[in-house]
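Entry type: protein chain
Record version: 2
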Amino acid sequence: MQPTDAQLWAAGLGFVLPPVIAIVNQPRWSGAVKGLMMLAVAALVGLGTAYFNGDLDGKPVVTCMLLAAVAIGTSYHTVWKPSGIAPGIERATSTGGAPAPPRGV
């Protein structure tokens, strides 16, 4: 099965969005809050790409949202976080306050 244009746009946007998300994210926020922020952005990307490609029927919208979420998470953990770009943006755009303490696994 070939991916649709909407799915390709969702994946492509998801790959480049972590630095944009890092502008809003704050170092003091917990991982759960940052994760919810990422899911909200993925939902918006999925809705937007499906809308602009005329695929606003149930399944294509959900597929675009899921693809965006996977692309955002994967690119953040494999490219943007290890390179220090996303954490650096978070620190540079922080509104103050102490970072959230790390939690044990």
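Comment: The chain is about 70% helix and 0% strand.
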